[in-house]
Amino acid sequence: MPHIDMPKIISGEPAILARRYATALFELAQEKNVLAPVEADLRALQEVIDQTPMFRVMATHPRLPMIELQKAVKNLIVGAKFHDLTAAFLNQITRNRRLAYLSIIIEVFKNELAVMRHQHVAVVTVAQALTKDQQDKLATQLGAMIDGSVRLVVEEDASLIGGMTVKMGSRLIDASVQGKLARLERQLKSQQEAA
Question: What is the average per-residue pLDDT within 144-155?
Fold first, then answer.
């Protein structure tokens, strides 16, 4: 069975749809006072996505008959003993064939929960590892930008060449050499087209 990744939705209509679903789920969970069980269910769902290639294949297969898709999701709901709201939500996105967006829905839900709890997480991707002192300074600077506290999640990616990218919620700060080169290339192309 080939490995198929869930799509990474960064922008466009799919991202808007995924955010709408996540916001609706968050608001309903908050209204019904079931944020904790729904959050736990979504963490379990993310583990299924991360650890089960067959789920990714099923979620992204455009021609899988709806009856088979619904049966698989029902088995997942029953086996995991999800909360009624999580179950209803999963059934809805299954009927609408939006399972492929589940990872970003979960990410947006977690971001909204963190904001509600006044917790901010910044995913920092760097070309080379940061020292503890560098991480502390960066967390302080980011905290000053948003007037709050920030916890860093640091990832390494040598393809950035140098610098870093910082993702906090829907904000993306690209201070990488790779990003600067890409912007320079776009400027040069637009100048050539204008000439």
Answer: 84
